[in-house]
Amino acid sequence: MNVVIANRQRARKINARLLKEIAEALLVEFKIEKAELGINLVPAREMTLINGTFLRHEGPTDVITFDYANEGRTGSPLPADGAHGMTRPTLHGEIFVCVDEAVLQAKKFKTIWQSEIVRYLIHGILHLLGHDDRHAAARRKMKREENRRLAGLSKKFCLAQIGGASRLRV
Fold this sequence. Notes:
Strand order of the largest sheet: 1-2-5-3-4
Number of domains: 1
Number of strands: 5
Shape: globular
Mean pLDDT: 89
CATH class: Alpha Beta
Radius of gyration: 15 Å
Oligomer: single chain
Strand content: 15-25%
Order of helices and strands: EHEHEHEEHHH
Distance between the termini: 14 Å
Low-confidence stretches: 82-87, 166-170
């Protein structure tokens, strides 16, 4: 399993080592034996650019996932939106998480921003596993799975500690 965290934002300190541990635990829970997963923590400005370039949407969003498992067939990475509908024992993708959006959403939903970061990570992995959120019923199913996984991870890890500095480069 290869999980790489890239912190490209400066709004919040991130314990990249802990976030990597959480991502790896999540992959184990999903019974993923092989993974090449990049997790990019980005500011709203960068997320706006990615959102406009790849999804043709204006403004920032919370999370965007790229599925590289299909790169050889298409010649370029595809945003993972569940369209493939396949569950794979191997993941190869990249998840972009907007920390600024996590902070805003945490205030809105009266939670902590660190929990939102983990929720977005779960959401991205679910997309790489073929989950779809384009229709209301599928969106509800995906949200239930996010909530279930987030609750489980909250029992294993102190998510608030994601908001600290990491001593090791990951």
